[in-house]
Specification:
single chain, about 250 residues, alpha+beta, five-stranded mixed beta sheet, 9 helices
Length: about 250
Amino acid sequence: AALAASQQQVADMAAAQDAFLRVVSHDLRAPLRHVTSYGTLVRELLGDLPPEVAQGAEVQEALGFLATMDQSARRMGLMIDGLQALVRASRAPLRPQPVPLADAVARARTTLAPAEAGRAVEWRVAADLPTLQADPVLLQDLLVPLLGNALKFTRSVAHPCITVSADAAPAGQVAFTVQDNGVGFDPARAGSLFGVFQRLHRETEFEGVGTGLALCRAIAQRHGAQISATAVPGAGCTVRVQWPVNPAAANKP
């Protein structure tokens, strides 16, 4: 009875947390739309001023303030998007089925084609990638930000290279890695890498709000998988995913 009560308490807390995130994600949209909409109206009003006034230092300073406000509002919108993605990933029904990882990687690359356009990225996708027992939709939601990060953080590299390969794993599990030769990060800060809104690079260097890897971790955990990352500053990053052969068994209490 005590165990059942504890399990029910945990379930109630999880449901309350999910409900809170859904409400926050939805209800923050309206005031955020007001900020961006009225900022545009103020900018238009300032633009209607006589040229000699519009070019004045005070008006130009006000336009700079509006630009900062607009940028911050759009960033907040992306943060809300990230929260909603996390809620969906945590509540969506889990329907594992055999998914060849090579096929999933190819689909993720198609999604990321705009980010790769105009670049000569060398992709090394191993021929022996495993077949995962995974929810195909959630697996795509994991691979897109994972490979997207590799693309993003190799933008400043003369010869970008991204490698997806199989890795050794204990019995009952399979593993794969995504390795790039990008900017890397400080290994001392690796512990915060998969946290929500955690960033290891300045926004002026790389876009993003720090929810992609948090989403990857949430999806991996739902499958009973583990995800970790290692890096060397200026020498790239390696993300390793260790996946159970049978996610259903891995998630049994």
